[in-house]
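Researcher: Here's the sequence for the chain we discussed earlier.
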Amino acid sequence: MTALAIDIGGTKFAAALVRPDGTMVRRAELPVGHDPAATLVSLVSLVRGVGADAGTGTGAGELSGVGIGSAGPLDAVAGTVSPVNIPSWRDFPLVGTVSELLPGLPVRLAGDAQCMALGEWWRGGHGSRSRALLGIVVSTGVGGGLVLGGVPYLGPTGNAGHIGHISVDRDGELCPCGAIGCLETIASGPSMVRWALANGWGDPGMPPDARTLSADATRGVAVAQMAFQRAADALAVAILSTAALFDIDDVVIGGGVFGAGETLLTPLRQAVAKQAGLGFLRRLNVERTRLERDAGLYGAAALVLKENR
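Model: Thanks. This is the structure I predict for it:
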């Protein structure tokens, strides 16, 4: 039996067929486009390789179920999603839409960062040692997910692990969510760039984005380095707060901003080590994702393939 895994991102959709042993049989991705629902139908057809009739829900074959990881916010109870970067999808009935495409198959929904964490636990080599794993996606926003005892902890509404909205600075900025000083206001790519620009960073000949900021930090530009240090310090506070609650073994971090690699990872590890007090917090292992962009697909598949663990 095979799971159909779907990863709903803000700029692209990806899907794959994944077997119980973790073999990815087929993978495809498409840009979101002007009609995301039509893109979803095309993607399901493409990855299953069954032609246009996939849109009618025929030819399910040996599929055992569908797992979906989606950018949020989402409501796993209602099966709806409202990805920030897809304005036309507000309370979009994603589970119902996929169920209509593939009638009779169970459909499981979780956040994209939750699926990233589960994918890393299952296929990233952490499952043999991690009883509790925290996955974090640092990108346009900051998302997170928890795997406890090999099982994703999603919470009653499906939003557990939303580390980006842990308050790390009570005197900080107002977050779009309405709270003050959320991690996302310091550690997301746009927040880091905004802070750096306000403190004198910028080259008229280069785009003011996280990629350029990372390059400048790597070559020693002080303001760029401070932006990454601020992000690392804030991430450390949120990570240690989560670890204190759940006794975490491993923290795995991915996302576009973490393409900076050691520019962010080194100060983050140093900040965690400096701020950790209790002994069980000092054992935390913090590293980059091993599965890169496929972590979410493996996690979405695991929602189906590992649901009875």
